[in-house]
C-alpha cells in the first residue's frame, strides 16, 4: 500500500470583478455650479462677458456628465439647463450693453463737436441753446432736449417691477432731437443723468439702472429719433430703501460739470 499523497484538486481561478465606477457625478456637479454662476452674473455689465465662458464650460461638462455613465444624472441635467440658459442670456446682454455703451460714447463725442448747421437748427428749435442748461426738469443742450414729465416709486412685485428684487423709482421723460444726426432715448439719458441716494455715511451711493418700467417702453428705448422728433421713454433706478430721497443730476455729457439737479421725495 503506497503512502504517496493524493494530488490536490485543481482550484478554479476567481472570476474578475467588473470595474467599480466611483459614486457621484463630478462633471454634473461642476456643470451645476457653473450654471448657477452664469445665471447669477449674466445681468451684471462687463461681468457677463465672463459668464459667457462660464456658461459654455458648464454646458460642455453637463453634456459629458450625461454621456458618461455616472450616477446620479440629476446634477448634470440641471447643469445643462442652467449653463445653457446662462450662456444665451449672457450673450444677449453682452451685445445689448456693448451697443448702449458704444452709443453713449458716440453721443459724447458728437456732442463735443457739433457742426455749425446743427447748432443753427438747435437755436431755431429751442431758442438760445449756445450753453447747456437744466432747469425745472428740462435738460437742453445743442444736441437734444430732455424733459422729465413724471416719476413714481414702484415696490417689488408691482406692475413695472414684477421681476425685480429691489424697489425702483421710475422716471418718464421725452427726448427731442435738435440735430440732423439720429439719437435714441436710452443713450441720451445714460449719457446725461445720474441718480443718487444719500444713505451711506462713508461713500457716494450712485444708483444702478434697473429693468424697463413697463412693456410700453420696450420699443421706444431703442428708437432712432429724427431731427425735430420727440419720443417718450422711461428709465428705472434700483433703490436701497423706500425713504431716502433720490437726487437726480444732469450734465451735458458724462465728462462735463453738473448743470443742476432735482430731488425726488419717496414718501
At a glance:
The protein is 35% helix and 20% strand. It is built from 5 helices and 8 strands, in the order ααααββββαββββ.
Distance between the termini: 117 Å
Order of helices and strands: HHHHEEEEHEEEE
In the CATH hierarchy, what is the class of the largest domain?
Answer: Mainly Beta
Uncertain runs: 114-129
Number of helices: 5
Query: Biggest sheet, strands in spatial order?
Result: 1-2-3-4-6
Structural class of the helices, strands and pairings? alpha+beta
Percent strand equals 15-25%
State the shape: elongated
Average pLDDT, all residues: 82
Number of domains: 2
Describe this structure in words.
There is one protein chain. The strands form 2 sheets. A 5-stranded antiparallel beta sheet has the order 1-2-3-4-6. Strand 2 and strand 3 form a beta hairpin. Residues 114-129 have low confidence and may be disordered. Helix 1 runs antiparallel to helix 2 (47-67) and helix 2 packs antiparallel against helix 3 (74-112). The protein folds into 2 domains: 26-105, no CATH class; 116-264, Immunoglobulin-like. The chain contains 5 helices and 8 strands. With 267 residues, it is of the alpha+beta class. The termini are far apart.
Amino acid at each position: 500500500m503506497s503512502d504517496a499523497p493524493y494530488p490536490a484538486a485543481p482550484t478554479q481561478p476567481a472570476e474578475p470583478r467588473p470595474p467599480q465606477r466611483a459614486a457621484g457625478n463630478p462633471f454634473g456637479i461642476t456643470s451645476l455650479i457653473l450654471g448657477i454662476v452664469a445665471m447669477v452674473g449674466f445681468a451684471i455689465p462687463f461681468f457677463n462677458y465672463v459668464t459667457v465662458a462660464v456658461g459654455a464650460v458648464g454646458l460642455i461638462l453637463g453634456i459629458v456628465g450625461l454621456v458618461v455613465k455616472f450616477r446620479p444624472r440629476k446634477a448634470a441635467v440641471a447643469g445643462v439647463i442652467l449653463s445653457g440658459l446662462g450662456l444665451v442670456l449672457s450673450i444677449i446682454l453682452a451685445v445689448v450693453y456693448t451697443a448702449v455703451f458704444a452709443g453713449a460714447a458716440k453721443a459724447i463725442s458728437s456732442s463735443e463737436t457739433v457742426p455749425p448747421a446743427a447748432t443753427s437748427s438747435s437755436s431755431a428749435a429751442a431758442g438760445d441753446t449756445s450753453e447747456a442748461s437744466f432747469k425745472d426738469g428740462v435738460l437742453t443742450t445743442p444736441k437734444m432736449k430732455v424733459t422729465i414729465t413724471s416719476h413714481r416709486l414702484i415696490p417689488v412685485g408691482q406692475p413695472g417691477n414684477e421681476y425685480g428684487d429691489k424697489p425702483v423709482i421710475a422716471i418718464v421723460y421725452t427726448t427731442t432731437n435738435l440735430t440732423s444726426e439720429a439719437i435714441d432715448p436710452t443713450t441720451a439719458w445714460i449719457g446725461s443723468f445720474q441718480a443718487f441716494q444719500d444713505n451711506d455715511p462713508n461713500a457716494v451711493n450712485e444708483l444702478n439702472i434697473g429693468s424697463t418700467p413697463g412693456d410700453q417702453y420696450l420699443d421706444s428705448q431703442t428708437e432712432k429719433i429724427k431731427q425735430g422728433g420727440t419720443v417718450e421713454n422711461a428709465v428705472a433706478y434700483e433703490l436701497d430703501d423706500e425713504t431716502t430721497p433720490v437726487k437726480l443730476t444732469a450734465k451735458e455729457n458724462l465728462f462735463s460739470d453738473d448743470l443742476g439737479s432735482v430731488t425726488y421725495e419717496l414718501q
